[in-house]
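In response to a reviewer's request, we include the raw inputs and outputs for one of the modeled complexes. The six entities were modeled together in a single run.
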Amino acid sequence: MARRATSGGSAGGGTEPGAATGSGASGSGTTGAVPERLLAEATRLFAEHGYDRTSVQEIVEAAGVTKGALYHYFGSKDDLLHEIYGRVLRLQTERLDAIATRPTPVTERIAEAAADVVVTSIQNLDDTKIFFRSMHQLSPEKQKAVRAERRRYHETFRALVEEGQRDGRFRPEPRPDLVVDFFFGSVHHLGTWYHADGPLTAEQVAAEFSDLLLHSLLRP
Amino acid sequence: MARRATSGGSAGGGTEPGAATGSGASGSGTTGAVPERLLAEATRLFAEHGYDRTSVQEIVEAAGVTKGALYHYFGSKDDLLHEIYGRVLRLQTERLDAIATRPTPVTERIAEAAADVVVTSIQNLDDTKIFFRSMHQLSPEKQKAVRAERRRYHETFRALVEEGQRDGRFRPEPRPDLVVDFFFGSVHHLGTWYHADGPLTAEQVAAEFSDLLLHSLLRP
Amino acid sequence: MARRATSGGSAGGGTEPGAATGSGASGSGTTGAVPERLLAEATRLFAEHGYDRTSVQEIVEAAGVTKGALYHYFGSKDDLLHEIYGRVLRLQTERLDAIATRPTPVTERIAEAAADVVVTSIQNLDDTKIFFRSMHQLSPEKQKAVRAERRRYHETFRALVEEGQRDGRFRPEPRPDLVVDFFFGSVHHLGTWYHADGPLTAEQVAAEFSDLLLHSLLRP
Amino acid sequence: MARRATSGGSAGGGTEPGAATGSGASGSGTTGAVPERLLAEATRLFAEHGYDRTSVQEIVEAAGVTKGALYHYFGSKDDLLHEIYGRVLRLQTERLDAIATRPTPVTERIAEAAADVVVTSIQNLDDTKIFFRSMHQLSPEKQKAVRAERRRYHETFRALVEEGQRDGRFRPEPRPDLVVDFFFGSVHHLGTWYHADGPLTAEQVAAEFSDLLLHSLLRP
DNA sequence: GATGAATGAGTCTTCATTCAT
DNA sequence: AATGAATGAAGACTCATTCAT
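The model returned the following structure tokens for the whole complex.
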């Protein structure tokens, strides 16, 4: 009776620990459970060619199953995308919540949060790429759900900025919401220029981005 | 057979003065020259629904012409997109070049350049939206051309950062190329959150973004 | 492999007493034996959406079982339809035979037979609806079987008409077979206009139809 | 600009005089205008296999065109069906209106109307078959439109019955609306038993049906 | 310069049925 | 007796593009 993945839970059951999809081997297609395989191949293909340019046929071929199998687990192509979003959002929200509630100075927490989101965005670079290009291709209702989750994430981050301003450690001028949009623009943009085989490791980029953010906030 | 607009030059001829597409009139479709109308409606529709989700039929209906007319002026749907890119790139490159060569301190030039690209991105918000979502939907060769133009733009900006670092006005630590990617991520992201009817004017956002960038670079 | 119900006999065994489907309870799905429940829900859904528009999935969901269960009792979707036909045909044939052999004047017998088929058609309105819309969706061989049973029914009715004409009670002009087609057209059509919550009871319609038939036959 | 057939007008333009589809040659497919050919083949196939069992592919193959051509003229498969309905309804409504307004006694008018609808139903037997089997496969809104037109037809016929009852020529007992449903049931049923190569001509059936109707109404 | 009918490959999705368990 | 994952063929519909006029 557990047909069709609901957007809340993971489709296949397991907790798929550390399923970094950024590295993207080109379609092994025959290992692991079917829903996971479908999700992994879909992620890879959506990142590579875009959501609209990736046909369901291509996905099932890459996963080594038939279309019927895909529609047994996912209600629609759109559902696949939603599931991919859900996975990333859950991961990043959990990590941010963990960092935001630590008993350390804001400065430190915001620096860590910034660095962390850069690292996980790079580790899941395919998801990151998909996120901004394809959000508007979700059905309106699913888009709304994703935006709501995303907003919650942003609000947590913004609260850190506000805390720093109340503390007096940060300059009072910048509007916290603009700071958030400013920084996450940079993060979301990673997918368009970062390459795993480039000169910089994820940690190096994270350190620099975190540093740029902090300097833009701190009192001189 | 020699009837099509070459993809490099502007299709209709003129310099389309002040063709701000951000405000988005909802498809009057009967004023002005045919190629301009097509380009304007295509821009609006691509921004609203995405390139792949916009059919040629919708574009010609919005522009009040027939398909034959579109294919008379543009070689393909893809050509329309390329033309939109060209327009925005030319505009921003010209403006940056003008600002970068002014005889003022780097600090001032970079602040102005940053503010200016925010303002023109907001004024042409539809183009901005299209830019990131649809790049990969261009044909490989056109993509290459756009990327090359974009790179030139980034290099000019990066040169300003480097100049500031050589000057000693900017902190030496940040890698100039990362600064550029950091800042332009924020700019490109404008399309996903800025709304003309929101609480902030283009100039306010420009001032804040420019300020954040400067503070992230200046020596404390 | 010998596990499927043969298409001739009733699938579940018993005589399904008073299984009037016309009233159409809206899919409780958990009372009674599985095959009866499947048949009842299938009848309701076929009448509502048509045979081709009703998926096996919908039937089993309405009946609260799984597909495996359906295919355990019925060889195919087509078998379900055939079973529905069988049920209604058996019922009406039995009743007509009983009436036709009574020791009363033809006039009376034909009036009763006409009224009776109207009442039972209305009581099983879902079956009536299905009968005409879906005959051609049966497999050719099953179609042939149903037609044969139907023909037998019509012949019994026609014999009454002929008897009335030989008697001299009925006008000699009408061709008995045309009379049968004339009248049963009206009966089959009930499904397209009769509603249980309309102004007329089944008995009122039966009385009128019977009256119209008799007047069309009787000598003036 | 005249894309897509509107439900009011005939798709191809012409008035297709006397386009009797009942005889049904098996798919010449290359004569006449494209929309007419599509409509003719669709009518034949829908009558033969039912609406749901006829694929768009089969229709276009029979008509000797491609799917694109079909969708150039008709918005959907559903539209084809609606167009077929419109054609028949227009024809029969016109004829009934003409007969109903003649300056002859009701008895005569109703006899002629009854005979005429039988003849035209037989001449367009494919349409007649389709009418009852496939009505519920139309989209709800189109169904509503067809029902409204049908109701108007029935009301005109019912008015004749009422007139005859007021006149005193008809028995007062039968409810006029039931008479209409009674008779049109018979007419609609023609498609399930009448064959052009059977023993009866359309006119013979028409005469008998008309006679049966009249005798059921006239005072004894 | 412009039309619009026609193409044909491609899209996502549905579904009756099977089979290992 | 019953499950439910998986199949594979078929479904309706879309769309960028061409070409005779």
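As requested, we also summarize the result in words. The longest helix of chain C spans residues 140-167. Residues 34-75 of chain C form a domain with the Arc Repressor Mutant, subunit A fold (CATH 1.10.10.60).
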